[in-house]
Amino acid sequence: MRSILHPLIIALAVSLNILTDHAAVPIMQAEAAACAPLSGEITTGTSEHTLTAGGIDRSYRVYIPPGYASSQPTALVLALHGFAQGAELLQAEATWDAVADEHEIIVAYPQGTGFPVRWHSDGGFDEDGGDDVAFLRTLITTLIADYCIDPARVYINGFSNGGGMAHRMACEAADVVAAIGGVAGAYSTPTECTPSRPVPVIAFHGDADMVVDYTGADDQFDLPAIPDWAAGWAARNDCDLEAESLPVQGAVSGIRYTDCADDADVVLYTIAGGGHTWPGGPGEVPAFIVGATTQDIDASAAMWEFFQRHTLPGDLLTEE
After folding, report:
1. 116: cis peptide before it, omega within 30°?
2. Looking at the predicted structure, is the pLDDT value of residue 123 above 70?
3. Taking the alpha carbons of 182, 185, 189, 190 in that order, is the dihedral positive or negative?
4. How far is the CA of 211 from the CAs of 109, 203, 278, 288, 296, in angstroms?
5. What is the pTM of this model?
6. Residue 13, in any domain of the structure
């Protein structure tokens, strides 16, 4: 990871103030036929919330699509921001809200801690003792209680440092996460990654990423080469280690590991000339800072297509 770019990215993100404006329109919550009865108002659009996890107040944003039907269990996607980015900027840069509108799913954007804001994807805690895995577990439980969410369809993905945190959740919380995704992920590996079950994985990475090098880094971050990281998940999932090629889409090529235990496929998309960016996103940050943003694939839409093919095994779901 090229730490010299971090101050530039932080300053640019702050100065650009890349935000989205989702009007919050309250609608009355009806009892869900397939859920425990809920009361109060559900707000469509984006709303901001806090919860306490490990004695620390943590914040998160929730996006509810206009077509949300509170009577029908829906999927939940958690999207984790990158280093120094924050939840609000990721919501603006990724295209998850559009996917939520089309497919009527709920998307949550949790906030990391510290300054610059970040996730402890390598297993470390905050200076004040915060535990990000515990926070995300608590958040999932809270959102399932607050909305009509199908606990078998909870997915997590992230950008850069957030992609690394999604990886850590697959290692340590496979009992609550059905599948994970990463975009330009900084996959600093925890000491051990021994998931309790095979976890489906999809990832996107530019081969010209100047922040999280596609070929890995031997500096203090000790990041793996991205193809090696994907092959590592294929091995964990007991897949056929001879990957099949996916159809080329412009600058985007891909591979898929199949014949995996529990059908937990592993997919890696490589963007030729792609930078430290979200494929299909608006690419508001100038290319001289983060590199090129491809429009040949929409990472969020492709992740959702992958996610919806995977659910948690029934024996992991606890009855409410």
Report:
1. yes
2. no
3. negative
4. 22, 16, 13, 12, 21
5. 0.87
6. yes
Give how far Cα 86 sits from Cα of 38, 113, 205, Å. Answer: 30, 9, 20
Examine residue 320 and state whether it is found in any structural domain, yes or no: no
Per-position DSSP letters for the chain, written without gaps between them = --GGGHHHHHHHHHHHT-------EEEEPPPPTTS----SEEEEEEEEEEEEETTEEEEEEEEE-TT--TTS-EEEEEEE--TTT-HHHHHHHS-HHHHHHHHT-EEEEE--BTTTTB--TTSPPPTT---HHHHHHHHHHHHHHHTTEEEEEEEEEEETHHHHHHHHHHHH-TTT-SEEEEES------S----SS---EEEEEETT-SSS-TT-B-STT-BPPHHHHHHHHHHHTT--SSPEEEEEETTEEEEEE-S-GGG--EEEEEETTB-SS-TTS---S-HHHH-B---S--HHHHHHHHHTT----GGGPPP-
pLDDT tens profile 243-298:
999 999 999 999 999 999 999 999 999 999 999 999 999 988 889 999 999 999 99
pLDDT digits (tens, 9 = 90+) for 76-91: 999 999 999 999 999 9
Whichever domain contains 65, its CATH number is 3.40.50.1820
What one-letter code names the amino acid at 302?
A
- In Å, how far from its chain's centre is CA 64? 17
Beta bridge partner(s), residue 203: 182, 268
Say if strands 41-53 and 252-257 run parallel, antiparallel, or are unpaired: unpaired
Note whether residue 177 is domain-resident.
yes
Residue 319 lies in a domain: no
Provide the residue range defining the domain that includes 143: 3-312
Reply yes or no on whether the pLDDT at 210 is more than 90. yes
Total domains present in the chain: 1
